[in-house]
Amino acid sequence: MSAKITLKDISRNLNISISTVSRALKGHPDISEETREKVMRLAALMDYEPNTYAISLRTNKSNIFGIIVPEISNFFYHSFISAVEEESKKIGFSLLILQSGNDPLVEAENIRLCRLNRVAGVLISVAASSKDMSRYQKLEENGVPIIFFDKVPDVDACNKVCLADEDAAVLAATALQKKGKQHILAIFGHPDISITQKRKLAFINAMEKNKQAKLIIAHAGSSRESFEITKTAFLASQQPDAVFCMSDEILTGTMKAMQLLKINIPNDTGIISISNDDFIPHLYEPEITYIETSGYQLGKLAFERISDYMSGKKFYRELILPSKLVEGNSL
After folding, report:
1. Is 229 found in the same domain as 139?
2. Which domain holds residue 190?
C-alpha cells in the first residue's frame, strides 16, 4: 500500500513551506494565484487527500450531516435521505444515517453518536413519544444546527421543515365531500405526534361542513394496526363508504384488509390517502386518489434551511412544503 501524501510531500516538491501549501489549498488571499495554481495542480497529480479526522479535531466539526429517522425502510424517509444526499455531495459532505425505531432512548443515543462524530448539523424526524428538548438544545449551544422535519416537536423555538399537514387533510376531506361520502373511516397515526394532531384536527373541522357525515376516527401506529382496524370496520353491520388513510404505511395495511375481504374499490367503498410522491398509490388497481406530500422535495427544503443556517441565518424558521390532490380511480 502506497504511503498517504501529506502537505510536507507537496511542500518538498515545490520548495515552499508547509504553511504556504496549507493556505494555498484553503484559497487564502495572502497566497498569489500563481502559487495557488501550482499547489492545486501538484496536489491533484499526487492524489492528495486532506486528513478529515485531523481537521474535525481542530475545528470540532466534520463534513458530515447526521440524519435521524424513525425507520430507514420507510419510502418517505428513503426519498428524503436521497434528496439530502444529492445536495450534500455537491458541497463535499457525506451523511451519517441513523434510525430511532420510534424509541426516545435510541434517539438519545443517536444524538450522542452525532456529537461524537462531530457532525456539522443534524436533520431529525423525532420519535412519537420524544419530549426532552434538552439534548437538542445542548447540540445547538455547541454550534451544531438542528433541523426538525416531518415529525417535529410542539415548540416554537426551533427550526422546522414540515409538510402542509392541515392543507393535506383539508384537501382529502373536500374530495370525500365532493363524492358525497357519508360514512367515513379515518385512520390517523400515533396520537401523540404533532403531524397526527394537525391532520386530524384539520380533517375533522373540514368534515363538519357536512353535518350528515358520520366519522369513525381511529389511530394506527403501524400497517398491521391499520389492517386490523380496517378489517374490524368492514366486518361490522354498517360498512364505511370511504376510508381516509393518513399515510402510506396506514394505506398498505388498509389495502391488505380490503383485498382479504374482497371489497370492491370504488364500488363498495372509496379510498383516499395522504402519500409520498406517486409510488405506493400506483401499486394498486385501481390507482389510489391521494394528497401528495413529497419526501424528496422536503429533503431539498431541509437541506436549503441547514445551508442557510450554516451561512449565518441562525434565526428560527418553520418552512412549509405545499400539498396537492392527485386524482386516481379509488373514490
Report:
1. no
2. 165-292
